[in-house]
Write a structure and sequence with these properties.
In chain A, a hairpin with a 6-residue loop joins strand 4 and strand 5. By secondary structure, chain A is an all-beta fold. Helices cover 0% and strands 55% of the residues of chain B. Chain B has no helices and 11 strands. Classes of the chains: A mainly beta (111), B mainly beta (115).
């Protein structure tokens, strides 16, 4: 079953912050985040493993709450280059190596 | 840099035709994947392969088959194309670590239209 992402779409001005949520109905081993710019292939952002760790680089970070089976992606002081569709991919304990992707969150940053 | 290439960016086929989509990766990755991407439905896994000649069904395998005769090449086959298979098809590859999924590298995609 696909994880549920929210919101489905969001429009922000440059410099504003955004949070994208990913929620699963099953226990998770890991959560992956990808960004896809219009007309391009999805690109890997980060992996979060069970243990509730928070990872990030520059102004994009993420958390993973394995008890709640949820992950959140945080984009701080958004830039125009952050525009795109963000997907979470979840990995359960029974399906090593295989990800189930959410339906995506479209993020539009305007000047 | 990892490179995943797909044989065509755009393809138009007729209903009932047999269609081959080819994917090649150059980083010696063990795992390869085929997804289809449709508006509002995200990326859905069709098949994946973790070794030569090995394959596993994904979430939507009906109407598709795959072939992996060489490590670097993974083919998606539509035995008899139908209009509901009009979609964007994305290939991906990843390393195998034996425990847990690793980052996937995606190809540019093939937009298939079946008329």
């Amino acid at each position: 079953q696909q994880p549920v992402q929210s919101p489905q779409a969001v429009i922000l001005r440059e410099g504003e912050d955004a949070v994208i949520n990913c929620s699963s109905s099953k226990a998770l081993y890991s959560v992956h985040w990808y960004r896809q710019k219009h007309g391009e292939a999805p690109v890997f952002l980060m992996i979060l493993l069970k243990g509730g760790e928070q990872k990030g680089h520059e102004k994009i970070s993420a958390s993973f709450n394995e008890k709640k089976q949820q992950s959140s992606l945080y984009l701080t002081a958004s830039q125009l280059s952050y525009s795109g569709t963000y997907f979470c991919g979840t990995e359960g304990f029974e399906s090593s190596e295989k990800l189930t992707f959410g339906t995506g969150t479209r993020l539009t940053i305007i000047p | 840099d990892v490179k995943v290439t797909q044989s065509s960016r755009y393809l138009v086929k007729r209903t009932g035709e047999k269609v081959f989509l080819e994917c090649v990766q150059d980083m010696d990755h063990e795992n390869m994947f085929w997804y289809r991407q449709d508006p509002g439905l995200g990326l859905r896994l069709i098949y994946f392969s973790y070794d030569v000649k090995m394959k596993e069904k994904g979430d939507i395998p009906e109407g598709y088959s795959v072939s992996r005769e060489k490590k670097e090449r993974f083919s998606l086959i539509l035995e008899s194309a139908s209009t509901n298979q009009t979609s964007m098809y994305l290939c991906a590859s990843s390393l195998y670590f034996g425990q847990g999924a690793y980052e996937q590298y995606f190809g540019p995609g093939t937009r298939l239209t079946v008329t």
